[in-house]
Structures are given as C-alpha cells and as structure tokens.
Amino acid sequence: MNRTEIGIYATKVWQLLVNNARWSYGDLKRKSGLRDKDLGAALGWLAHENKVQFDQEEDELYVYLCVNVYIG
User: Fold this and answer.
1) How many CA atoms lie within 13 A of 2 on its CB side?
2) What is the structure's pLDDT at 68?
3) Is the dihedral of CA 7, 67, 39, 19 positive or negative?
4) Is 17 within a domain?
5) CB atoms within 10 A of CB 32
6) How close are the terminal C-alpha atoms of the chain, in Å?
7) What is the pLDDT of residues 21-53, one digit of tens each?
8) What is the CATH number of the domain that holds 36?
9) Is 69 a residue whose pLDDT tops 60?
10) Residue 51, domain extent
11) Where would I find the H helices in the chain?
12) What pTM did the predictor assign?
C-alpha cells in the first residue's frame, strides 16, 4: 500500500460519508468493499485532515463528517 492507494481509499470513504449520515465501521466496511487495513488507512488519512469524527458506543465505532467553521 502506498500514499496514492490510501488517497484513493480515502476518496471512496469520503464519497460514502458526504450524505452526512453517521456510519458504523461495519457498514462502512461492507459498503466500501475495503479490507480492514485499507479502511483504517483511509480513515486515518481523513482524520489527519480533520474531515471525520468518531464515536465509540459499546463495541461499535461510528464515523461521520466533521463540520469546520472558520470565521475570519
């Protein structure tokens, strides 16, 4: 896996998240068709860019888009 592949995986995940829904990790994995390591890398990329947030509820991880508001 390289940076280009991770960027492709991150784009795929981003396209699923743009509907502003909160996705469980399992649903995101099934819908994206990515393996755990590829989905993890994609989420790490998006988290580093402050694009996604995570909620842990019991044994399930949920992912959703961040809302960043900049007032200058």
Assistant:
1) 1
2) 64
3) negative
4) yes
5) 17
6) 39
7) 899 999 999 999 999 999 999 999 999 999 999
8) 1.10.10.10
9) no
10) 3-65
11) 3-17, 25-32, 36-48
12) 0.87
